[in-house]
Amino acid sequence: MITYNRAGARPSLMEFVSAAKLWRVWLHMGLQDVKSRFRSSMLGPAWILINLGAVITAIGVIYGRLFHQPMNEFLPFLTLGIVIWTFISSSLVDGCSAFVVAEGYIKQFAFPKIIYLYRAIVPYTVVFFVGLVVFFIAMALYQRHVGWGALWAVPCFLLFLTINFFHLVIVAHIGVRFRDLPHLLGSLIQIAFYLTPVIFTVAMLKDRGLAFVYMFNPLYYLIEILRYPLLNSEAPPAEVIYVALGYCVVAGLVATYVVRKMSQRIVYVL
């Protein structure tokens, strides 16, 4: 039997496990969130694929020529960069409202509050996998081979997903108390976008003596942990793995601290 803590109680590790066992609940809620974005639309969630494909094609053609990059290499690189960045930015910015938008559920049902964090990450994951479809289409159009080494992306995605879940845990708890947090993080993420190799390559930075821009940018390693195996069909470089693992540990510790300090107050602040 699964037991639930009181709405205002501090969650334990078992509550995360209990919430995970309720996967039918939070998965259904998350998928409904995706569908609700396209209510009364003729194409429905297919707009995600259409919008993403149009944006990547437009940006790819312009910046590919602007940066004098071969399109067969640049377009798949750009596609993955934008898709992965969208996931990261969503977990940090949209994640701030995970508990806020679930206020009615939290006050009326005895489910563990953690299910609303699992629910929040479902739409980001759906958009990510739709983006992978665009990536594989781009690879096929340019006859780029995807080898078995690309399967390294599976464990790398699990690490990536864990890190972004920690992001979500942190900002969701803080966002209940500080409602300006989404606006602050939105501005910071916009700045970070222009400082992270998403639409420009690492080689461009090295050639201009700007290697420090990516070397000391943790977001670069979060992108590269997934982009490298999918583009090159081999394991990411050791330094990318080590930094990503270290970042995961730090994010997990911060998430644990935030939950212990703020979880009990969520119901009363909402």
From TrEMBL:
Pfam families: ABC2_membrane
GO MF entries: ABC-type transporter activity
GO terms for biological process, alphabetical: lipopolysaccharide transport; polysaccharide transport
Any single GO CC term annotated in Swiss-Prot or TrEMBL for this entry: plasma membrane
Subcellular location: Cell membrane
Main location: membrane
UniProt keyword Transmembrane helix, yes or no: yes
Protein's name in the database: ABC-2 type transporter transmembrane domain-containing protein
